[in-house]
Amino acid sequence: MKTLTLASIYELQGLKNEALEIYKELLMANPDNKEAKIAIKRLSGIRKKYLGVDEEMKKFFLNMNSEVEFLEFERWLVKLWN
C-alpha cells in the first residue's frame, strides 16, 4: 500500500525517485493532498538543481584512490549542500 509514510521512508533512505512516484500517485488520487504537493515540489527542485551532477561525482567517488581525491570530494559535498 502506497502511503505518505512509505514515501517519506523512501525519501529518507535516499530513494528520491521512488518517493516522488508515490507522492505523484497520492496526489492523483487526492488532488488536495498538501503534503504530497509540498514533497513533489521539494523533490522536483532537488532533481532539477542537481541533474547530471550525481553521475559525474559518482564516477569520481568510485575511482578515488588517494587522500587528496577524498578531500576534493568532501569539499564538493560541502559546497553542494551550502
Order of helices and strands: HHHHH
Report the C-alpha radius of gyration, rounded. Answer: 16 Å
Q: Helix/strand/pairing class, anyone?
A: mainly alpha
Report the strand count: 0
User: Major sheet, described briefly?
Assistant: none
Q: N- to C-terminal separation?
A: 36 Å
Overall residue-averaged pLDDT value: 82
Q: What is the count of structural domains?
A: 2
Strand % is under 5%
Relative helix content: over 70%
Residue ranges: pLDDT <50 for 5 or more in a row?
A: none
Total count of helical runs of at least 4 residues: 5
Shape: elongated
InterPro entries: TPR-like_helical_dom_sf (IPR011990)
Quick description:
With 82 residues, this protein is an all-alpha fold.
What do these coordinates show?
Helix content is 78%, strand content 0%.
What is the topology?
Layout: H1 4-12, H2 16-29, H3 34-49, H4 53-62, H5 67-81
What brief labels describe this structure?
2 domains, single chain, 82 residues, TPR-like_helical_dom_sf, 5 helices
